[in-house]
């Protein structure tokens, strides 16, 4: 059975010559990322700002075509398909955005926000749409009397519930969530994460969960893909990535994440430097400038992703580092 | 040293009120804090808990219609409540300095960073131009900016967020402050940059013997950095304790619930324990204990009368039924 979603060497380049003084070049926002996503599973995309995780999210939601590479849903290509087929594919992937203060139309009531996707797609009549919206409100923990309220009357956590409800109205099979809890306070974050896990079980949803917060990822994900400067540096199950991180960058991320109990930390890596500019990145390993193990080979030659102990990792020296 | 005898910063019953169209709102209510020279205190709380406003009040940065009252607000021998503007200008930026959350928007985009760092030196010390340049280069080196000579003329938009935060820290430490207040200094930054900035703050604090107040919503950041932690909720301090003790054995139900909600402590993909309800806003501060509508242990007593702060062997807590109390 083909995977629900499969990405094969996805690339997305942008031309960076729009500014008056900007130097010309190509931004390789995503540069050859592959993954598979199964129904009912969560794949977390982890990385720092500018690593290309949001560009990957836009390609996964079919909002942007890849410059190169293939994105398959149910084993079928998503490009060069008929308009009707493309429309059907669009419905199967929905998105939840980071900032619930910016992603909801302030002039529409909750009911109108939830019914809009159905209305656009001519699903049911007015009464059926209203019933569907009310049913979804109950599922995400909103009260029925809140149907006619506007987004500003809700707290951040409640707004994110509305955004999740809206994403689920068309019964997608894949939900791309771009930093869904990073704008929320800790106590609210826990509520939203619980909701997302409950909905995943109920609807057998696949999540592409984009986050920079490793403790959230460690809780919710099944698989983890670590990106750096547009490329995959490590991709494996959550257990392997968190308990035996192989790539020096993954180790640095784990070493840098603040913990309540620092004694729990297994990786001791000196954290230094900043990511290189994605405009014309270095020819060799993109992490070489910050890597404590970098050699001449790393500067000269780009490491390919390869299988090491069940994990895909892009590093010349995995075995040597141990 | 006389400073070692008395506390560097002493706050008794600090309140900050804002008069709004809907009535008087107490953003900070009855805060006590004593800070010794050379110590690191973390202030944690969710958005709207009053943690930033409390420290802005110490800095004298609360503008009308905000009103600051306190029984005592002393810093290094100065009574901060009764300073003239002139005296305050001499103190703020020199003996107490602040680092803000968004480095890229806190810096002035129209001036090079070297000029902005030199500004506080020019304001507080009489130094000639050549000496200022040398001092600024030295400061940039201390905060870990590579090739500082070439960065003097750089504008904030030419530097990364992490580099801008280093510039902010250089500005803050330029006049050798006794107290540095860092308000969410790493929230806008990536984790690997955050780690470097926190390490820098702690090493500067240690070298210079400064006191450091670290305001943050990130429990992990305080756990790894601060000596003592103060937890705020809805304008009030609910618990204060030595860091390791607070995280190992929280005494206030809010602290305990907040820690339990962290994914870090949860079992893999199990439901996270949550705190029901939301933080009270400007209109719906409850009577009695501010946490009682969300508290599992609340009784009638909690709804009727606000609890006072009790001092235990290992810290202070504002609760009638602290979690370690004998049943």
The succession of helices and strands of chain B, N to C, reads: HEEEHEEEHEHHHHHEHEHEEHHHEE
Helix content of chain A: 25-40%
What's the total number of strands of chain A? 12
Our Rg estimate of chain A from Cα atoms comes to 21 Å
Counting DSSP H or I runs of 4 or more residues, the number of helices of chain A is: 11
Question: Main β-sheet of chain A: number of strands, strand sense, barrel status?
Answer: 8 strands, mixed
Shape of chain B: globular
Low-confidence segments of chain B = none
User: Which pair of chains forms the biggest interface, and how many residues does each contribute?
Assistant: A-B, 36 and 40 residues
Q: What general outline of chain A do the C-alpha atoms trace?
A: globular
Strand order, sheet with most strands of chain B? 7-8-9-3-10-11-13-12
Strand arrangement within the widest β-sheet of chain A reads 6-7-8-3-9-10-12-11
N-C termini distance of chain A: 36 Å
Helix proportion of chain B? 25-40%
Structure description:
- The complex is a heterodimer of chains A (322) and B (327).
- Chain A is built from eleven helices and twelve strands.
- By secondary structure, chain A is α/β, with parallel strands linked by helices.
- In chain A, the strands form two sheets. Chain A has an eight-stranded mixed beta sheet with strand order 6-7-8-3-9-10-12-11, with helices on both faces. A four-stranded antiparallel beta sheet of chain A has the order 2-1-4-5, covered by helices on one side.
- In chain A, a hairpin with a 2-residue loop joins strand 11 and strand 12 (311-313).
- The longest helix of chain A is centred in the middle third of the chain and has 18 residues, at 186-203.
- The radius of gyration of chain A is 21 Å and the shape is globular.
- The two termini of chain A are 36 Å apart.
- By secondary structure, chain B is of the alpha/beta class.
- Helices cover 34% and strands 23% of the residues of chain B.
- Chain B is built from 13 helices and 13 strands.
- Chain B has helices at 2-5, 51-59, 85-91, 103-106, 113-124, 129-142, 148-151, 161-173, 191-208, 219-225, 243-248, 253-260, 300-304, and strands at 9-20, 23-35, 40-44, 66-69, 72-75, 78-79, 96-99, 179-183, 211-216, 228-233, 236-242, 310-312, 315-317.
- Chain B starts with a helix and ends in a 10-residue tail after the last strand.
- The mean pLDDT of chain B is 91.
């Amino acid at each position: 059975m083909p995977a629900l979603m499969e990405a094969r060497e996805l690339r997305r380049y942008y031309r960076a010559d729009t500014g008056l003084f900007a130097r010309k070049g190509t931004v390789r926002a995503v540069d050859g990322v592959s993954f598979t996503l199964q129904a009912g599973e969560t794949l977390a995309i982890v990385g720092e700002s500018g690593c290309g995780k949001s560009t990957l999210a836009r390609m996964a939601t079919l909002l942007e075509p890849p410059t190169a590479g293939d994105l398959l849903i149910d084993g079928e290509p998503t490009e060069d398909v008929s308009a009707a087929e493309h429309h059907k594919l669009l419905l199967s992937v929905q998105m939840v955005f980071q900032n619930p203060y910016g992603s909801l139309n302030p002039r529409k009531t909750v009911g109108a926000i939830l019914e809009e996707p159905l209305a656009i797609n001519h699903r049911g009549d007015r009464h059926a749409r209203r019933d569907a919206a009310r049913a979804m409100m109950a599922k995400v923990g909103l009260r029925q009397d809140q149907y006619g309220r506007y987004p500003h009357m809700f707290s951040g956590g409640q707004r994110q519930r509305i955004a999740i409800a809206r994403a689920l109205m068309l019964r997608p099979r894949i939900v791309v969530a771009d930093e869904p809890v990073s704008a929320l306070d800790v106590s609210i974050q826990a509520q939203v994460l619980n909701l997302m896990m409950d909905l995943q079980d109920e609807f057998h949803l696949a999540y592409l969960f984009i986050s920079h917060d490793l403790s959230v990822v460690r809780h919710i994900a099944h698989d983890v893909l670590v990106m750096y400067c547009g490329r995959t540096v490590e991709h494996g199950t959550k257990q392997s990535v968190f308990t035996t991180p192989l790539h020096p960058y993954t180790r640095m991320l784990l070493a840098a994440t603040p913990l309540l109990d620092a004694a729990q930390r297994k990786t001791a890596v000196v954290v230094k430097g900043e990511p290189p500019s994605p405009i014309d990145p270095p020819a060799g390993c993109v992490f070489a400038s910050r890597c404590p193990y970098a050699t001449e080979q790393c500067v000269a030659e780009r490491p390919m992703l390869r299988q090491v102990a069940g994990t895909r990792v892009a590093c010349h020296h995995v075995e040597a580092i141990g | 040293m006389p400073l070692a005898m008395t506390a560097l910063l002493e706050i008794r019953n600090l309140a900050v009120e804002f008069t709004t169209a809907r009535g008087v709102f107490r953003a900070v209510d009855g805060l006590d804090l004593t800070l010794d020279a050379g110590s690191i205190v973390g202030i944690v709380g969710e958005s709207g808990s009053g943690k930033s406003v409390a420290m802005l009040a110490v800095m004298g940065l609360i503008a009308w219609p905000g009103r600051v009252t306190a029984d005592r607000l002393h810093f290094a021998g100065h009574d901060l409540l009764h300073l003239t503007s002139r005296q305050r200008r001499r103190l703020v930026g020199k003996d107490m300095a602040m680092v803000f959350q968004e480095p890229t928007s806190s810096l002035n985009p129209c001036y090079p960073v070297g000029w902005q760092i030199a500004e506080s030196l020019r304001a507080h010390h009489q130094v000639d131009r050549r000496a200022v340049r040398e001092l600024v280069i030295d400061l940039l080196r201390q905060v870990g900016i590579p090739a500082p000579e070439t960065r003097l003329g750089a504008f904030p938009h030419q530097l990364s967020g992490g580099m801008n935060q280093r510039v902010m820290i250089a500005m803050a430490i330029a006049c050798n402050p006794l107290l540095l207040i860092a308000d969410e200094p790493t929230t806008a930054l990536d984790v690997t940059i955050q780690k470097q900035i926190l390490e820098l703050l702690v090493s500067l604090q240690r070298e210079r013997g400064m006191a450091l107040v670290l305001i943050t919503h990130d429990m992990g950041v305080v756990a790894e950095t601060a000596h003592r932690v103060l937890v705020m909720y809805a304008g009030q301090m609910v618990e204060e304790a030595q860091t390791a003790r607070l995280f190992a054995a929280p005494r206030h139900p809010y602290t305990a619930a907040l820690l339990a909600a962290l994914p870090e402590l949860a079992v893999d993909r199990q439901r996270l324990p949550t705190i029901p309800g939301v933080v009270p806003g400007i209109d719906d501060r409850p009577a009695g204990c501010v946490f009682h509508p969300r508290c599992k242990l609340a009784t009638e007593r909690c709804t009727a009368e606000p609890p006072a702060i009790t001092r235990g062997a290992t810290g202070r807590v504002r609760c009638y039924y602290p979690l370690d109390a004998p049943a």
